[in-house]
Design brief:
Number of strands: 17
Helix content: 10-25%
Strand content: 25-35%
Number of helices: 11
CATH class of the largest domain: Alpha Beta
Number of domains: 2
CATH architecture of the largest domain: 3-Layer(aba) Sandwich
CATH superfamily of the largest domain: QueA-like
Radius of gyration: 22 Å
Oligomer: single chain
Shape: globular
Strand order of the largest sheet: 2-1-17-16-14-3-12-13-15
Largest sheet: 9 strands, mixed
CATH topology of the largest domain: QueA-like
Length: 417
Amino acid sequence: MQPVKKFIMKEDPKHIRISEFNYPLPDERIAKFPLPVRDQSKLLVYRHGEVSEDRFTSLPSYLPTGSLMIFNNTKVIQARLHFRKETGALIEVFCLEPIEPNDYVLNFQQTEHAAWLCMIGNLKKWKEGTLKREMTVKEQPITLTATRGECHGTSHWVDFRWDNPEITFADILEVFGELPIPPYLNRDTQESDKETYQTVYSKIKGSVAAPTAGLHFTPRVLNALKEKGVDLEELTLHVGAGTFKPVKSAEIEGHEMHTEYISVSRGTIENLIVHNGKAIAVGTTSVRTLESLYHIGVTLLKNPNATEEELHVHQWQPYETAEETASITSVKALQAILDYLNRHDMEALHTSTQIIIAPGYDYKIVNTMVTNFHQPQSTLLLLVSAFVKGNWRNIYDFALNHDFRFLSYGDSSLLIP
């Protein structure tokens, strides 16, 4: 029997220095707008250490027939709300995640009151009192108020109330909200972003940032994948504003990963098992969800009666349990989730994850990745580095030297380690 060695790490991931993941990114290399045709973006292909360039429409030709590709079907909400105080001060309330009720679907369906955890722009001008805005929604006049509650780190509890029981909170966001494009674009949201900053397969409202690797896909490419015999599945991870949170600590131990909410259907888990627990992930959000599934399965193998809260994947959990999980296959972990769903007569797994994927991480489910080019010194760059066994610099040097466009509206890469 061969000795298991993958769990033995040369370096504790907590002591990785983020300065080692820096690279020069001139502003002109950041794509401020998408290409007119989504699938005409460039595709960097990294296969077993070799780097080449192609067009995104060629993606299906690189993928094996019978493989499984998984997308994040979350939809970006118009999460920025603007109020003007009687003094004239403009206050921005950025809805991050629902609190009361804490289920996204239920919260969007509320008809008179909803509470969210929010970031506040121009906070110093809103020390007390209620913000108010008159608006017309579905041809009906309503008054929306916002009252600030307790502080949660850098965010605040905000209670929203409105005076028309026929109007839902989703209706208000649709009319009154502004789409939160990434701050590094350094421009205002435009009407075109409402379409271009959504994937063509987005369905489940809840994200405050797009799963941008999916922005390149078109019906044409999706059909070509099906014709190639690639199986397509979806999951949901609602992307939080924390995805833009810079790593400010010298070592990543000092960086607290944000919590993100995930939902994976029974059918997707069954299909993963059929594909021997392996998948092609579209975007880092799909990567974090799929890898979290493995660790959720491990939790259930140890405690089949775990609660939803106990299934939450903590930031350092994969590293702390690396030795004991080395012999647990992805299929065994996924089967534990399926058994859990069957016991509770559930059609989908709903929980959350704080997973950080950094060099030293042993990928369990994702064997191929489609992703964009990420910011210097970001946790997303750590994730990519872990996937390509530290070879990220060759990939990014190639992209910089071959006029690839970077970040959310930029070009794409296919990574096959």
